Description:
The chain is an all-beta fold. It has strands spanning 3-7, 10-12, 18-25, 34-39, 46-52, 60-63, 71-76, 81-86, 95-101, 118-119, 123-127. The chain is 0% helix and 46% strand.
Amino acid sequence: HVQLVESGGGSVQAGGSQRLSCAASGYDGTMYCVAWFRQVPGKQREGVASIAPGRGSADWTDSDDSVKGRFTISRDNAKNSMFLQMNSLKPEDTATYYCAAQTVNSCGLWYLPSRYHYWGQGTQVTVS
Protein backbone atom coordinates (compact mmCIF):
# COMPACT_ATOMS: atom_id res chain seq x y z
CA HIS A 1 0.00 0.00 0.00
CA VAL A 2 1.55 3.27 -1.15
CA GLN A 3 1.17 6.27 1.11
CA LEU A 4 2.45 9.82 0.69
CA VAL A 5 2.19 12.10 3.70
CA GLU A 6 2.91 15.82 3.49
CA SER A 7 3.87 18.02 6.40
CA GLY A 8 5.24 21.48 7.03
CA GLY A 9 2.37 23.66 5.91
CA GLY A 10 1.07 26.61 7.84
CA SER A 11 0.88 30.38 7.81
CA VAL A 12 3.83 32.59 6.93
CA GLN A 13 4.33 36.25 6.14
CA ALA A 14 5.18 37.40 2.66
CA GLY A 15 8.91 37.22 2.08
CA GLY A 16 9.30 34.38 4.52
CA SER A 17 10.28 30.76 4.02
CA GLN A 18 8.72 27.38 4.59
CA ARG A 19 9.82 23.82 3.99
CA LEU A 20 7.39 21.11 3.03
CA SER A 21 8.14 17.42 3.48
CA CYS A 22 6.63 14.36 1.86
CA ALA A 23 7.29 10.97 3.41
CA ALA A 24 6.69 7.93 1.25
CA SER A 25 5.89 4.42 2.38
CA GLY A 26 5.27 1.34 0.28
CA TYR A 27 7.02 3.09 -2.58
CA ASP A 28 10.64 3.67 -3.49
CA GLY A 29 10.66 7.37 -4.29
CA THR A 30 14.31 7.24 -5.23
CA MET A 31 13.53 5.36 -8.42
CA TYR A 32 10.78 7.40 -9.96
CA CYS A 33 9.57 10.86 -10.87
CA VAL A 34 7.98 12.68 -7.94
CA ALA A 35 6.62 16.20 -7.82
CA TRP A 36 4.88 18.93 -5.88
CA PHE A 37 1.59 20.40 -7.06
CA ARG A 38 -0.61 23.10 -5.61
CA GLN A 39 -4.23 24.02 -5.89
CA VAL A 40 -6.50 26.84 -4.84
CA PRO A 41 -10.29 26.52 -4.73
CA GLY A 42 -11.89 26.93 -8.13
CA LYS A 43 -8.63 26.46 -10.05
CA GLN A 44 -6.87 23.51 -11.59
CA ARG A 45 -4.08 21.75 -9.80
CA GLU A 46 -0.76 23.10 -11.08
CA GLY A 47 2.71 21.63 -11.11
CA VAL A 48 5.25 23.40 -8.91
CA ALA A 49 8.41 21.32 -9.18
CA SER A 50 9.56 17.80 -9.97
CA ILE A 51 12.56 15.58 -9.40
CA ALA A 52 13.69 12.32 -10.97
CA PRO A 53 16.81 10.17 -11.01
CA GLY A 54 19.37 11.77 -13.27
CA ARG A 55 22.48 10.47 -14.94
CA GLY A 56 25.22 9.90 -12.47
CA SER A 57 24.76 11.21 -8.95
CA ALA A 58 22.76 14.33 -9.76
CA ASP A 59 18.97 14.27 -9.87
CA TRP A 60 17.06 15.91 -12.67
CA THR A 61 14.80 18.74 -11.50
CA ASP A 62 12.45 21.24 -13.06
CA SER A 63 10.03 23.84 -11.74
CA ASP A 64 7.34 26.17 -12.90
CA ASP A 65 8.48 29.61 -14.00
CA SER A 66 6.44 31.21 -11.22
CA VAL A 67 8.65 29.64 -8.55
CA LYS A 68 12.03 29.45 -10.30
CA GLY A 69 14.72 30.98 -8.14
CA ARG A 70 12.49 30.82 -5.04
CA PHE A 71 11.52 27.15 -4.57
CA THR A 72 13.87 24.18 -4.51
CA ILE A 73 12.85 20.55 -4.71
CA SER A 74 15.07 17.88 -3.20
CA ARG A 75 14.92 14.44 -1.67
CA ASP A 76 16.58 12.31 0.96
CA ASN A 77 16.94 8.81 -0.40
CA ALA A 78 17.80 7.34 2.99
CA LYS A 79 14.53 8.65 4.43
CA ASN A 80 12.49 8.04 1.28
CA SER A 81 11.31 11.61 1.56
CA MET A 82 10.94 14.59 -0.73
CA PHE A 83 11.11 18.26 0.20
CA LEU A 84 10.09 21.63 -1.15
CA GLN A 85 12.04 24.57 0.21
CA MET A 86 10.05 27.73 -0.42
CA ASN A 87 11.74 31.10 -0.05
CA SER A 88 10.60 34.65 -0.76
CA LEU A 89 7.00 33.55 -0.44
CA LYS A 90 4.27 35.66 -1.98
CA PRO A 91 0.54 35.82 -1.22
CA GLU A 92 -0.11 34.18 -4.59
CA ASP A 93 1.74 31.09 -3.34
CA THR A 94 -1.15 30.47 -0.97
CA ALA A 95 -2.58 27.05 -1.83
CA THR A 96 -2.92 23.46 -0.75
CA TYR A 97 0.29 21.71 -1.69
CA TYR A 98 0.35 18.06 -2.71
CA CYS A 99 3.16 15.63 -3.32
CA ALA A 100 2.66 13.15 -6.12
CA ALA A 101 4.51 10.15 -7.48
CA GLN A 102 4.74 8.32 -10.75
CA THR A 103 5.90 4.81 -11.50
CA VAL A 104 8.33 5.80 -14.23
CA ASN A 105 11.83 7.18 -13.76
CA SER A 106 11.56 10.14 -16.11
CA CYS A 107 9.53 13.29 -15.67
CA GLY A 108 8.28 13.98 -19.15
CA LEU A 109 5.28 16.33 -19.02
CA TRP A 110 5.76 16.37 -15.24
CA TYR A 111 3.33 19.25 -14.81
CA LEU A 112 0.32 17.16 -15.87
CA PRO A 113 -1.53 15.75 -12.83
CA SER A 114 -2.76 12.82 -14.94
CA ARG A 115 0.81 11.49 -15.12
CA TYR A 116 0.85 10.65 -11.40
CA HIS A 117 -0.42 7.50 -9.78
CA TYR A 118 -0.13 8.41 -6.13
CA TRP A 119 -1.06 11.55 -4.20
CA GLY A 120 -0.73 12.81 -0.67
CA GLN A 121 -3.60 14.37 1.25
CA GLY A 122 -2.27 17.90 0.90
CA THR A 123 -0.97 20.54 3.28
CA GLN A 124 -2.18 24.13 3.39
CA VAL A 125 0.25 26.99 2.94
CA THR A 126 -1.06 30.49 3.60
CA VAL A 127 1.05 33.55 2.83
CA SER A 128 -0.16 36.92 4.07
